[in-house]
Give the backbone structure.
Amino acid sequence: MIINHNLNATNAHRNMGSVNVSQGKSMEKLSSGMRINRASNDAAGLAISEKMRSQIRGLNQASRNAQDGISMIQTAEGALSETQSISQRMRELAIQSSNGTYTDEDRVLINEEFVQLSKEIDRISEDTEFNGIKLLNGDLSGKSYKLDGTPTVKHGAGGGIDTNGDATAVDSMFGGTTAENLAELGEGTFELKVRIEQTSQYNGLVTVELWDNSPINVYKPYIMDTVKIDGAHATEGFSIGGTGITVDFSNSLEFTTGETTVTFTNKFDKQEDRIKFQIGANQNQTIGFSIDDMGVRELGLAAITVDTQENAESAIHRLDVAIEKISAQRSGLGAVQNRLEHTIASTNNTSENLQAAESRIRDVDMAKEMMNLTKLNVLQQASQSMLAQANQAPQQVLSILK
């Protein structure tokens, strides 16, 4: 009989230790509800599960993104609804003013409301925001323009600013202004009138006026902006019409009282999506669209009045065009909103199916694991009993010593 090496006890102890480890893993799965708690449980399954989790969380966020997009669109569309109501009222006033039963004095009174309503359209376009993002002022239009041909320079009486006979305004008089700067003013024909009031040989008071002379967009030419600067014998930069302009006085021999007019035309170049909604879980899964400038000028309502019967009759057609533009923009926004609603439904459905797939990989079958735990509990108790009996075997050696 051997007492130094109790192999039966060693075997029983080894099996009991193995059962204890398996029992701990089984309890961990049951307590967490997951089959995979660490990479050692299922390395490949963990990798697949984490990829699915990225997609699921990404899709859930994308669904919220689309809902936020709908909120933005509803904000813009609601503002445009009011703009359209204002336009309809302005058209009503134009029809009223064009009637021969009113005197010019009556039409002046009608025109007061007409002008105020026109200003309100501009205010709505400038003030409508979503999360600090202006929606209707053209920032989201995505349209870009380019200079059509070469600007022309015309000197009035007195000569104005000396451009050394160069007819290219961008290269001489507007030496620091690029075609891109001028194109920022938008589509149409414009005039920059630079008027000099000489105060000394090399100095003068300079008045720069920006005129909109676009027959397609406006009823008649009107001043968009005016800037006055104390002219020096140098280059002067300033902002007019929201655009940076630089007038180069450095080539002028002297300031002479007079006026110089620079005429240029911008034409539409291209349009890109200015707003992009991330509606997928991966890169480049977006929906893009744009919102045109809904200001008075862009709607073709700048400078129109109903103070005379002739003006009122002309205003009716302008308002018809404006109402069509607003309707087209509202229709576009509605189409995008409907698309986003379908996107949300599709995204939520995909997320749900991925969650089901991820659950089959990662979650534990509670009933099956309970069966396994029950088996391990029985094995643990049996191992403890066998270890106790194996430890009793060496005690039989004592009977030989009696």
Notes: The first strand starts at residue 129 and ends at 130.
